[in-house]
Amino acid sequence: MIRPVFTELALFLAPFAAYAIFLLVTRTAVLERSSWPPKVLAMLAILALLLMIGSFLVLAHFSGAPLGSTYVPAHVEDGKFIPGHVQ
Question: What domain range is 59 assigned to?
Fold first, then answer.
């Protein structure tokens, strides 16, 4: 469960990191308040949210079991534990 959280967090922080790298490459002071105007921060936040929404859609579309499959829950059969699976 922690991996998807870190993935979404990384996708959210990616535009801010890219902008910080851009500031470093252009030799602008990264930690100066004037380098991070509210308009730029708002655009980066919107881009970050769009990346997160897109990743949620991709995850929902391409992960999981195929349509029409049946989940068989874990059970004990002849004294042996059979883990849950999708058929």
Answer: 2-82
Residue with structure tokens 């967090």?
9
Check residue 1 and give its pLDDT: 73
d(CA 28, CA 31): 9
Q: Is residue 32 included in any domain, yes or no? A: yes
Q: Is 87 part of any domain? A: no
∠ CA 37-42-34 to the nearest 5 degrees?
A: 10
CB 8 within 8 A of CB 52: yes
The pTM of the full predicted model, rounded to 2 decimals, is 0.69
Give the CB-side neighbour count of residue 1, counting CA atoms within 13 A: 0
Q: How far is residue 16's CA from residue 12's CA, in Å, rounded to a whole number?
A: 8
